[in-house]
């Protein structure tokens, strides 16, 4: 929906293998890759895309919610044209897709923008009706993912818990809910470090009826 607001025609794929397969048989102006995408990660997808005889070669934009300087450097080294840290404002994404961002050195990367009241859906590039629609969908998705998170905690499947919490942190960014995002990040970090008690405590703060901006 965001990309459509920018006038783009978007093709959504589920994982790295699907991204490569789709790129082989279709022509794209740009490819947006999450570093933590399922299967082949974003950096490896970028490397393999650069090795393909694609004409034209699309711009490759990397995304991640939790990335340090080493991740940025390795992403550019893998062949990405630029790297964005989530949350990303629509204006920043538009610039990255159009090529109006630095891309030639590891220090020329875009950093996470300052939080703005109302969340990412407050962007002036979004119409009020579209923003309301996306906000409603985000809240519905929050409820569905919370059920999945509870199921993963019951097993427990800590890898699954971490992935869902990571996903929900992005939902929190959309809604402009700093408290929800903090709980999601804490839950993900705890799940990845094997701290069951802290993961469950943080997950308890991620509620489907959580008040949002």
Task: Describe the structure in your own words.
There is one protein chain. The chain has 213 residues and is mainly alpha-helical. The protein has helices at 2-5, 16-25, 42-51, 69-77, 90-98, 128-154, 158-175, 178-193, 196-203; strands at 30-34, 59-64, 82-85. Helix 3 links the parallel strand 1 (30-34) and strand 2 (59-64). Helix 7 runs antiparallel to helix 8 and helix 8 (178-193) packs antiparallel against helix 9 (196-203). The longest helix is centred in the middle third of the chain and has 27 residues, at 128-154. The protein starts with a helix and ends in a 10-residue tail after the last helix.
How many beta-strand segments?
3
**Which secondary-structure class do the elements indicate?**
mainly alpha
The rough form would be described as globular
Low-confidence stretches: 102-117
Proportion in β-strands: 5-15%
Largest sheet: 3 strands, parallel
Order of helices and strands: HHEHEHEHHHHH
- Distance between the ends: 20 Å
Percent helix, as a range, is 40-55%
**How many H/I helices?**
9
Global mean pLDDT: 80
Radius of gyration: 17 Å
